[in-house]
Structures are given as C-alpha cells and as structure tokens.
Amino acid sequence: MMLGQTLLEKLEHHQDAVFVDGRGAALPFPELAKRCAEHAGELRALIGGRPRPRLLLAKENGTGLVVALLAALAADAVPIVVDPTISDDQLAILLADCGVRAVLADRDPARLGDRTVQTAEGAWIVRDGPDTAVSAPAPDTALCRLSSGSTKTPACVEFSATAVLNAATTWAAASGLSGRDRILCFAGLYNGLAFNTSLIPAMVSGASLIVSAAPPTGGHVIRMIDEHRPTVIVGFPVLYERIAHRIDSADPQQVRAVQQARLRLSSAAPLAAETRHRLARHDIEVHDYYGTIETGPVTFNHPAADGQGRLLPNAVIALADDRGDGTYAALNIKTTSGATKFLNYPGLFESQLDAGGFFCSGDLGFLEGDRLFLRGRVSGHLNIGGKKLSRELLRECVESVVPAGATVFAGCVIDRDGRDAIGVLVETAGPLDPALIRSRVRERLGASYTPAFVAAVAALPRSGTGKVRRIDTEKFMNELFAKGIDR
Question: Which among 183, 138, 161, 164 is positioned nearest to 350, based on CA atoms?
C-alpha cells in the first residue's frame, strides 16, 4: 500500500476541509495535496535512483512539515519525523545510524550534510557519503517516528502504511471525527498524541486542522481557541494548566469558546488536581488518551471518568502476572496500529514482544472491565509531560560535568502545580555548578529535559548493600525541592 498516494487522495476528496498553520495561513486540503504532489517531484529529482531513501524532518508545526512528510511518502522515500528541538548530538547519531540521505530542519545546516539543494519548500541538506545505517527498513515500512522511552538514544520506530491508517481510522471512529470538526492542535505533530489523534485522522475524516507553531502562553491559547472555535482541542497537560490559569480572567465569549469544544484531549499524564478544579468551575472537562509510540492509541477516556478510559476496539491489554484481585501489573499491549521494528536498534523491539506478540510497554496498571488505570512504570525511565527519557542517559549526561567519583541520581520532582519535572541529586563533597549541568542537558538532550532542580548532597539514601534506594531518594529530593533552591 502506498501511504502517500492514499493520503493525497483523501486530501483531494475532502474539498471543504482546510489546514491552518501556526501563522494563520489557511490552505484547503485539495490545494495542500497539489503542493505535496509538486514537492514530491522535486524530491524524486533530489534523491535520484536511490531505493526508498530515508529523509529526516526536524520542522516545527506548520505547512512546511506536512508538505514535506506527504511529499516524501509520495516520492517513495521513508520520512523520519523528529522533534525539532532534538539536540545536535542526538541528531548526529540518528543521521548516521539510520542512514539518512537528506534533511529538512529548522537549524543551522552546517553539521547535517554535504550540500544544500534549494526547493520550493525550502533547503534540503543532502548527505552524499556511504550508507552508514545499522539496518535496512522493513519492506513494508512507510515512515518512522522517534521514541526515547526504551533506549539510551532515541529509537527510530518503523510503521507500515497499514498501521498508520489503522491508528487514524480507529481513532476517528472512536472520537466521532467528521468533516464538521475543526481540530486545534497544540502538540508537536511529530508526537503520537498529535500524529495519531489529529494529523492523520484529520486527513482520513475530512476534519479541518489548525496547528500551533510553538507552545503559546495562556493568553494566546485562549485567543486562538476564541478565534478558531474548534470542536476538538488537543494538547499535553501543560496546555490545560495554562488555560486554567487564565480562564477566570478571560472574556465570557472566550470562556464559551473553550466550553463549546465537544472534546478536549490530553495525554495520559495526569492533570494537577488544582487544574481540574479550576476548569470544572467553568464546566470544562478534559479527556485522556493513552497509547505508546510502539502500539499507537490504546484507550480513550470519554466521557471523562476515573482512570485512563476504555480500550479502543483494535486494542487488547494482557496483564503480566495478573492475580485477578485488582492488584496492578505490567501492561502488555497488542493493537492493529503497532510498530514493525526499530531501525537503529536491530532486534530490540522484537525482544520486547511476549510469546503472544504483545508489546511489553513497561507501564504498570490494572483493568476494571475494559477501563484502564495506570500506576507508574516498571522500567527506569522518566515520563515528563508525556515525554519519556532514559534515566541512564540523563545520568551519563550529568556525570560528564560533575566531580569525578560523584554519584548522580536522576528522578522526578513534583512542582507546586502538581506537574512532574526532572530533578537531579549529586552525592559529592566537591563544588557543583547547577547552571553548567542544565546547560549540558539542554545541549545533549534538548531543552524540554532541562532539570527543574539540581542539588549536591553529602549522602544519598542507600540500602544495607550500598545501593541507592530510588523511592527514598525521590522522596528526599522532593523534600529539598519544596524548599525552592538549588544547592
């Protein structure tokens, strides 16, 4: 199945739908399809006769990203869609390990390739050297997206056309999307929340799609909602925190615009109690979505109730070591929208499947009927506002700038608004520079993983065998964080 051709045909069919980028430029779906087809011709000339070359897209939300994605698909290339804020170090590793042949990015191209080719959609940076990929894409792979939750560096996750369309059609049916809807999406289109509930479902259903180019302030969020009058709002918990902080002072018509959206969707990361309380005073309810990048959408919490919602029709969860007494267990998941493999970690994805082909998600939870309740993670990874990060990778990053022999602990702290943030404790007698630690993390891992709290301590809580006790250390770190200062 040619995913690019299928999606272009959908765009041509939905003549009344429009795509609106973060700067307000509106493009009817048929015109978007025409622009994509024209750029596909440019990409065919750029890549020459190379079979299914990998093209990396590191663009902010906007028309340019969507056109490049669909054009790459139509040109029979394999697009790799990544967070535009990915660090230079991680991007360099991806380019090499995935055998990327050309890059379209919102950054200085000097380190990205060998030459620049100008097109109607911007400058592509071409890499002319030998193929350095650690593996080839699966024969049915249509596109790739990144996961940072189960590997030290981001895993390049492969998806077939069938998986992409199954995720979109299942979500569109479950959420009732149609040509009458207007989706206002504040999440990055590279992320599963936006990709699986907004970008591809809009093309499939004919819903209009408006995207925000960057995380806006609370006032700007309210104004965008008032201007576009969406029927569906999509964003991570921080979006709803910003709405909650401004809703009491907003104009009545702005409040009504938020209220009149039939669906306000967030990730499974919990909203702070104060946020829910403020929104509830205005009869504003937020609905959770749960999924993983490896499986696609799994549950939908609508109408809103306790837990993460009911299983979608194409999803099955098996509880590892389930005792049948409501005790939480590891979640193993199978859907029709699952990944094929990791391009840059051969064999790793396959090792995370159980004997029945269920993906071992690393999440903990339990089921009451078909309703899911999450209870944390099995593995040593952090989940910050819906983004996952390897503790080991963060710890190694910090260790590169602290005194030799220091012990680094990376964990979660809870801020005064109830949000998860990154905290770092360093067991050392030497001097510590929190600003240097934050700078190094931003440089290597990206700004979204900058620690909110950094402190030096004389001793970390340890067991009798000398191992750091994670639960006790996170509790200790949160007690220090509550005092409000690095040290």
Answer: 138
Which are the contacts of 272, defined by CB distance < 8 A and separation ≥ 6? Answer: 237, 241, 417, 418, 419
User: Which residue type, as a one-letter code, is found at position 483?
Assistant: K
Amino acid residing at 193: L
Whole-number Å distance between alpha carbons of 246 and 75: 45
- pLDDT in the model for residue 20: 96
- For residue 264, what are the β-bridge partners? 233
**Number of residues written out for the chain:** 487
Q: Which domains does the chain have, with CATH numbers?
A: 3-81+99-132 (3.40.50.980), 381-482 (3.30.300.30)
Question: Would you say the pTM of this structure is higher than 0.70?
Answer: yes
Contacting residues for 117 by C-beta, under 8 A, at least 6 apart? 46, 102, 123, 124, 125, 126
Encoded tokens for 444? 């290597």
Residues 252 and 222: beta-carbon distance below 8 Å: no
Q: What is the DSSP string of 176-243?
A: T--TT-EEEE-S-TTSHHHIIIIIHHHHHHT-EEEE-SS---HHHHHHHHHHH--SEEE--HHHHHHH
Main-chain dihedrals φ then ψ at residue 426, nearest 5 degrees? -125, 120
pLDDT at 485: 65
pLDDT at 179: 97
What SS3 class is residue 305? coil
CB atoms within 10 A of CB 240: 26
**CA quadruple 73, 75, 79, 81: dihedral sign:** negative
Q: 408: part of which helix (H) or strand (E)?
A: strand 407-414
Instruction: DSSP for 368-381, please give it.
Output: ETTEEEEEEESSSE
- CA–CA gap between residue 203 and residue 215 (Å, rounded): 23
What pLDDT is stored for residue 464 in this prediction? 57
DSSP count for the chain of H helices, then E strands: 15, 25
Across the 487 residues of the chain, what is the mean pLDDT of every consecutive 10-residue run? 92 97 88 97 90 94 96 97 88 93 84 88 91 93 84 86 97 96 95 95 98 79 94 92 91 95 85 84 92 94 84 92 62 96 95 92 86 74 72 86 88 78 89 91 86 91 70 84 74
State the amino acid at position 386 in one-letter form.
Answer: G
Residues forming beta bridges with residue 334, ordered by sequence position: 316
Give the CA-trace dihedral at 426, 430, 431, 434, to 10 degrees. -10
